[in-house]
Every structure is written in C-alpha cells, then in structure tokens.
Amino acid sequence: MLKIAHRGAKAYEPENTLKAFQKALELNSDGIELDVHLSADEQIIVIHDETIDRTTNGKGIVNTFSLSDLKSFLIDGKCQIPTLNEVFDLVDKKCFINIELKGLGTAAKVVELIEQYISEKNWSYNHFIISSFDWNMLEETSNLNPNIPIGVLTEEDLDTALAFAEKTKAKAIHPDYQLLNKENVQQIQEKGFLVLSWTVNSEEDIQKVKSYKVNGIISDNPDKI
Ligand code: G3P
Ligand code: CA
C-alpha cells in the first residue's frame, strides 16, 4: 500500500510548499503528489490553483507573473511558492513524485525536466508519475516520452479512464475513491493498472479503501494510512 502525501503532507504544513514536502518525507511517505502551472517566463511552478489568491498574500493569475514576481509572494506568511526543480532537489530520490499537470503548456516542460534529472542526476523513470484530468496533456506526455509513467485521473467514469489508459499504456488509474469498490478495483488491476485513489483523509475512509486492496492512497495525512 503506497502512502502518497497530497500536495505534500497538507494536513500539517501549507500545501505545495517545501515545508509540506519535507514533512511528507519525515512521515516516510512513499510518494508525494503536487500540482503544476507555468509562470509567464515558462518556469514550472508548484501551485494548485490557476491564481495565487487562495494560498498566498497576493492576487492574480499564476501565468501572468514571472518566477521572480511569484517569489515575492508569501504562503502563510513564511513560505515561497516553489518551482518543480526545487522540489526535485529537496526530495532527491527519497520517494517518488506524482506531478499533476494543471496549467496549459506544462506537459512539455515537465517532460524536459524529468529527462534532465534522469540523464544528469541519476534519477529513474520510477521516481515519477504524471497525472492529469486533462487527458490531452497525458497523451502529449506519452507522445513526447512513452517511458514516463502516466496516471489517468478521473472523478467520473472508470470505463472511459480504463479505455484511455489502455490506449496510452498508462501505469495507473487515479480515481476519486468514491467511485471504487472491491470489484472494480480488482477489474482495473486485472487489466494491469495500479489503482492510486484520492483524496482519502478520514480514518474510516482510509480503512474502507484499504479493504478494496487499492495499490496506493493519496492523503493529506499519509501517516494515517
Ligand atoms: O491527484 C489527486 C488530486 O490531487 C486531484 O484533485 O484538486 O486536489 O488536485 P486536486
Ligand atoms: Ca492534485
């Protein structure tokens, strides 16, 4: 059962910050999950929303700011918005990284960065899995480099997600845990895909999803898994 820290260990530190990813490592997470957008100068920025309004002391759309502008805003009065490189360097192969592509244009930039860490810093493909609700971006990822593991995110329809996973030779399906039961988890696994379910936080839901024998759980509190 893989323990995957959602946006870092979001229950304990501000989401998608180096502090949250450090906490996830301290909790012995097998993986971390994070979200990415591009800045105006095409740097890969780790942030969930399209805007900085909810999580920082600033206001505006992420892709209208340069990286240096984005660094001037604070999260929870103390943390800066990290780049994906900074997270890779912090994690330093201690766990795998589930990169969820949110912003347009992120697929090609993320593929490029992964290839750089594999060729120059001795990382391997198994240190990464790219997921997205935008399946066009997953297709783009797979076309750019079919060796990069892909996770098909869905909150609606498992059958369509399975068909897409077969087409793109994905590694995993990432379903909203509320779609799951023992039978459909087994069916997905029999077709050769991992089931990494999200976002499972309460003790009760964690126990229920574990009883379905999923391969991994993405949680704000990975220590409870
Ligand atoms: O990757 C699973 C989960 O993170 C998807 O939802 O909104 O938290 O990015 P969200
Ligand atoms: Ca996410």
By secondary-structure content and strand pairing, the structural class works out as alpha/beta
What is the C-alpha radius of gyration, as a whole number of Å? Answer: 17 Å
Q: What is the CATH topology assignment?
A: TIM Barrel
Report the biggest beta sheet as strand number plus sense, adding barrel if it closes: 8 strands, parallel, barrel
Tally of structural domains? 1
Number of strands: 9
Distance between the termini: 8 Å
Protein name: Glycerophosphodiester phosphodiesterase
GO molecular function: phosphoric diester hydrolase activity
InterPro entries: GP_PDE_dom, PLC-like_Pdiesterase_TIM-brl
Organism: Flavobacterium johnsoniae
Question: Quick recap of the structure?
Answer:
This protein has 225 residues and is of the alpha/beta class. The chain has 8 helices and 9 strands. The chain has an 8-stranded parallel barrel with strand order 1-2-4-5-6-7-8-9, surrounded by 7 helices.
Description:
The protein is an alpha/beta fold and 225 residues long. It has a single domain (2-224), classed as TIM Barrel (Alpha-Beta Barrel). Helix content is 34%, strand content 20%. The protein has eight helices and nine strands. The longest helix has 16 residues, at 106-121. Bound molecules: SN-glycerol-3-phosphate and calcium ion (CA). Calcium ion (CA) is lined by residues 33, 35, 100. Calcium ion is lined by residues 33, 35, 100.
